[in-house]
Automatic annotation (TrEMBL):
GO terms for MF: metal ion binding; metallopeptidase activity
InterPro entries given in the database record: Metalloenz_LuxS/M16 (IPR011249), Pept_M16_N (IPR011765), Peptidase_M16 (IPR050626), Peptidase_M16_C (IPR007863)
Record has Protease as a keyword: yes
Descriptive protein name: Peptidase M16 inactive domain protein
Organism in which the protein naturally occurs: Tsuneonella dongtanensis
Length: 1010
């Protein structure tokens, strides 16, 4: 709500609240996640009464002390040339060999220490014959090194309690390579061991021919797994937007030709050139004495010397306009990319050279004005799209890209083949912003959004994880800027409020759209729509300023809104019996769980559960489930449409997330005590007096239609589109609607389906966080307590079970992407409901055992990347529908081997007890995840949702630690026999159009279809 926001709720330009630097970046991660959806019901947490007090790591150094901390009057290396006040919680050091480090004490989560090793070299540093080497070297560094035998890194870190992929990871970008390790239970002995292992990895990787032969197939698999159409667009767009610069043709993944030509010697040469102390920054934040952390850095890296002479980084190049272009409108390179399965999108970029700056307060004030200018334009563009314009969405975003260009990107999606009108409409809004100053009311609105984001960061600084703080330093180093405490960010903003004038904003807006060259790319499914010359002509055509999207001042206040109903009465109020949580029941049947605590200062988590979830939809209404996820909130509340919802939440910490779960609908938000009462009003009003604006439904329908065909461009896209539909026996409730179904859907039909659903079923409200209990009870009485009596859930909805499909032969789907790409899945039905919850936790251990074996097996058999994943899903609100799923992105010819591998793993799990070491590699990371997750309110909320009416959920908390971390080989054998060996699995393969699978049924659907 309000301004375009990032994941933390801050305006998008401020995704790093602990840095005054306001730029975003992209990266290529070594660990690819097939399915980002969190399995909330299985998120391991630990009751507070089971957690021992934190034991910080102790300095194991006697009289020794770090020698190279920059203390007293010394200016820390990260603040040289800057007048930004130091964040005094960080301690900085620089050693004679040139290595720099930053350390700090942080107790979130308790006993964890986060380590980041940053090498100032990425794909942009590669020579032509080395493309992909930075990323390949990242893999080989984990493969084998001075203190780690071949393949021993992952098991070793698992034994230390670190989960592979989340606690142990690395990433390569154009400008850096970063190794990441989050160490749980970080006592002095464990930290000593970890630093020793890391020093061996970074300083002395083995880089053998055997290691290269083992890692090269994995890297090539990662390259293969990228969606072909999207990857082609990314590569060609980069060539156009960054024409003449190194970034134009240096993707971190590299090329197949350069990768297959790699030798241990050429990889070693890249390592020796760039892996040097003067190119290295080590950041450590965690629950330990920072001086002890500094001493560890100095001990294990202080005597490191680079091999050979120091090498300066290459010249990244500048964006330059073609000869003869018009200085007043310097349109340069343009490209039209034809991809039949991708929706229309257009991007044009105003390019400027990137130059390193002194990161001063004045510089950051300028960035704040830039960000506010973009926020005003983006709000106007969004308003135009909501009203039913010529484009689905449009956005302006300034970005300093890989220290290569300072660019302002304009991106939008035309609704039809008439891209010229969409381009003209977007340019018209921008032309108006360049020609005429904004109103002070517009400026004040965006300032209010910024201020609440910065103030919230100050309130919540005590609960920021050490891993996040370490990542902030790494990002600041990468873009050559400083870091600042949240208080400093807020102080700078508040100290420059008099500079947020219409004239200053206009000046910065004009600068954002000025530069030596403008470049553009249009992606279209139809080659006849445009060519590069037509795109260039359209950009050169003068455009009239369009002020119709300017937002007129409208005063909207919660005080002016009608009540939900007569305030209700509290029928019952009693302790829940755990953690001091109160259970409240109102006379109208609404129940609530309230936990007032200061574990997360300044933050309140609110969740509302109601109705019957996915069970509510009859087959003929399934299309409205999908549209509801996108349009239900936007269709309005009472007297408030989308624009009014934005306006009324200006300067507030409010949200409105909606989700359809297996057995319940949910609203959720992160808010704060000052805004809690109004947040509750919005949620209750959506149930008690919903609004039914048509435009959000029409827009959601258009977006779904544009996206539909793009799913068929890759195996991963097909899984996203059809996995659940196929897994649950083509149950229409899990179907991604196709264009004909979407065409038949109407706003009137949307209301007919959703209006009764909002009025059905019990309501449970959970409020966890820092709030006043009495004031919240009164707010609940005036909102949810004031709702009319709820209608019962129809019997036919409650009777709709979710069951996994069963078939002796694999189900085969076809994609239209690269011929070398495929995906495979094997799923075994398990169960659901509260009764079996303890067993589901043991199934998580079994799934993790399966995951480790599958990863090893597929890498050995086929050179698969890190994509194989085993997922345990156990829905708690319904009695059926749970599963264990093993998924992977692989080559088409490897699908039979994948199915065979899963069968063999099942046989082995049933017939041969797992070893104690193998079990420890799973239970130790689970134990650490339990300990860390238990420090946040959100995880408690997930575990206790539904507990206001089902006391079993409270009782089950008391066995959670045991259930997730204590088991036996015999218990794992029994579970494998019960759930894997004795049940018919469902197998699914996604292979390229035109190919055949040996076991594919004759009735397989046409390409891209079902």
């Amino acid at each position: 709500m309000g301004a375009v926001r990032g994941k933390d709720g801050a305006p998008r330009a401020f995704l790093r609240p602990h840095s005054l630097s306001l730029h975003l970046g992209t990266h290529y991660s070594v660990f690819m996640s097939l399915f980002p959806r969190a399995l909330r019901h299985l998120a391991p947490i630990l009751p507070l009464f089971l957690i021992s007090s934190p034991v910080p790591a102790q300095e194991k150094t006697g009289a020794l002390a770090p020698q190279h901390l920059q203390t007293g009057a010394q200016t820390p290396w990260i603040y040289r040339g800057s007048d930004v006040p130091r964040d005094k919680e960080w301690m900085f050091g620089e050693m004679p060999n040139g290595l720099r480090y930053a350390v700090r004490k942080n107790g979130v989560p308790p006993e964890q220490v986060s380590i980041r090793v940053r090498i100032d070299a990425g794909s942009i540093h590669e020579q032509d014959h080395e493309q992909g080497f930075a990323h390949l070297l990242e893999h080989m560094t984990f493969r084998e090194s001075k203190y780690l035998a071949n393949g021993a890194a992952i098991p070793t870190f698992q034994r230390l309690g670190a989960t592979f992929g989340s606690d142990t990871n690395a990433e390569t970008t154009p400008t850096q390579t970063v190794y990441k390790l989050d160490v749980p239970e970080a006592n002095s002995g464990k930290l000593e061991e970890v630093f020793k292992l890391l020093s061996g990895m970074i300083r002395e990787p083995t880089l053998s021919a055997k290691g290269l032969s083992e890692d090269l197939p994995i890297v090539l698999a990662e390259k293969r797994e990228q969606a072909a159409a999207a990857q082609r667009v990314a590569e060609e767009s980069r060539k156009t937007i960054f024409a003449g610069q190194r970034l134009a043709n240096r993707l971190p993944i590299g090329t197949e030709a350069t990768l297959t030509a790699a030798t241990p010697q050429t990889v070693r040469a890249f390592h020796d050139r760039w892996y040097r102390p003067e190119n290295t920054v080590i950041v450590v934040a965690g629950d330990a004495d920072p001086r002890a952390l500094a001493l560890l850095v100095e001990r294990y890296f202080g005597d490191w010397k680079g091999r050979g002479p120091h090498v300066e980084p290459p010249d990244f190049g500048d964006p330059v306009a073609p000869a003869g272009s018009d200085p007043a409108n310097p349109v340069g390179e343009t490209a039209v990319l034809v991809e039949p399965d991708l929706p229309r999108t257009m991007t044009y970029a105003v390019m400027r050279p990137w130059r390193q700056v002194n990161d001063t307060i004045v510089y950051n004030e300028g960035l704040l004005l830039d960000s506010l200018s973009q926020a005003i334009i983006n709000r106007r563009l969004e308003s135009r799209a909501r009203a039913g314009g010529s484009y689905l969405y449009a956005q302006v975003n300034q970005d300093d890209v890989s220290r290569t260009a300072d660019a302002t990107f304009v991106s939008f999606a035309p609704l039809t083949e008439d891209w010229q009108t969409a381009l003209a409409d977007v340019r018209g809004v921008i032309a108006d912003a360049i020609a005429t100053p904004p109103t002070q009311e517009e400026i004040d609105r965006e300032m209010a959004e910024f201020e609440v984001a910065f103030a919230s960061s100050v309130e919540q600084r005590a609960v920021l994880a050490g891993s996040k703080l370490a990542d902030d330093i790494v990002q600041a180093v990468d873009i050559r800027e400083t870091v600042a405490a949240p208080e400093t960010v807020l102080l700078v903003f508040q100290g420059m409020k008099d500079k947020f004038t219409p004239e200053n904003v206009l000046k910065h807006t004009r600068a954002l759209f000025s530069g030596p060259v403008t470049r553009s790319v249009y992606v279209t499914p139809d080659a006849s729509e445009a060519n590069a010359s037509a795109l260039r002509t359209a950009l050169l055509t003068p455009i009239a300023a369009d002020g119709s999207a300017r937002l007129a001042a409208k005063s909207v206040s919660f005080d002016q809104l009608p009540p939900v109903g007569p305030p209700g009465t509290i029928a019952e109020q009693s302790p829940l019996g755990i953690l001091g949580i109160d259970r409240v029941k109102f006379a109208n049947g609404v129940s609530a769980l309230l936990w007032s605590n200061n574990a997360e200062p300044g933050r309140v988590t609110v969740k509302v559960r109601f109705g019957s979830g996915r069970r509510a939809f009859a087959p003929e209404d399934a299309v409205y489930a999908s549209l509801g996820e996108a349009a239900l909130v936007g269709s309005g509340v009472g007297e408030l449409g989308q624009e009014e919802l934005d306006r009324i939440s200006t300067g507030r910490r409010m949200g409105f997330d909606f989700e359809i779960e297996e057995g319940v609908f949910t609203f959720a938000a992160q808010t704060r005590s000052a805004d809690l009462a109004d947040q509750l009003y919005l949620f209750a009003a959506k149930l008690g007096m919903p609004r039914w604006d048509a435009n959000p439904v029409i827009r959601a329908r258009a977006a779904a239609k544009l996206a539909y065909e793009s799913y068929a461009t890759s195996p991963n896209g097909m899984l996203e589109r059809d996995l659940e539909y196929e897994l649950y026996g083509r149950d229409s409730r899990f179907e991604t609607p196709a264009p004909p179904e979407l065409d038949a859907a109407t706003p009137e039909g949307f209301r007919k389906v959703w209006e009764p659903l909002l009025a059905q079923g019990p309501v449970e409200v959970l409020v966890f966080g820092e709030f006043d209990k009495d004031a919240t009870l009164e707010a609940l009485r005036r909102t949810f307590g004031a709702l009319p009596a709820r209608q019962p859930i129809p019997a036919d909805a409650l009777a709709r079970a979710t069951n996994l499909a069963s078939a002796s032969d694999p189900r085969v789907l076809f994609h239209r992407g690269d011929d070398s790409q495929a995906a495979a899945m094997v799923a075994w039905p398990t169960g659901g409901g509260v009764v079996g919850l303890r067993e589901s936790r043991q199934l998580q251990i079994l799934s993790d055992l399966f995951n480790n074996r599958l990863l090893d097996e597929m890498r050995e058999r086929t050179g698969a990347s890190y994509s194989p994943q085993v997922v345990n899903d156990w829905p708690v609100d319904v009695e059926t529908g749970g599963s264990i799923k093993a998924l992977a992105l692989i080559r088409p010819q490897d699908v039979p081997a994948y199915f065979a591998a899963t069968e063999q793993i099942v046989r082995d799990l049933v017939t041969t007890p797992v070893t104690a070491d193998e079990l420890a590699r799973v239970t130790e990371p689970l134990k650490q995840s339990v300990s860390r997750a238990s420090t946040g309110n959100t995880f408690w909320l997930w575990q206790l949702e539904g507990a206001s009416e089902d006391s079993r959920r409270v009782a089950l908390l008391r066995t959670l630690l045991v259930d997730y971390t204590q088991t036996t080989p015999e218990a794992m054998q029994a579970l494998a026999t019960k759930y894997l060996a004795s049940r018919q699995p469902f197998r699914l393969a996604v292979i390229p159009q035109g190919q055949q699978l040996a076991t594919a049924p004759a009735s397989s659907p046409p390409a891209g279809g079902r």
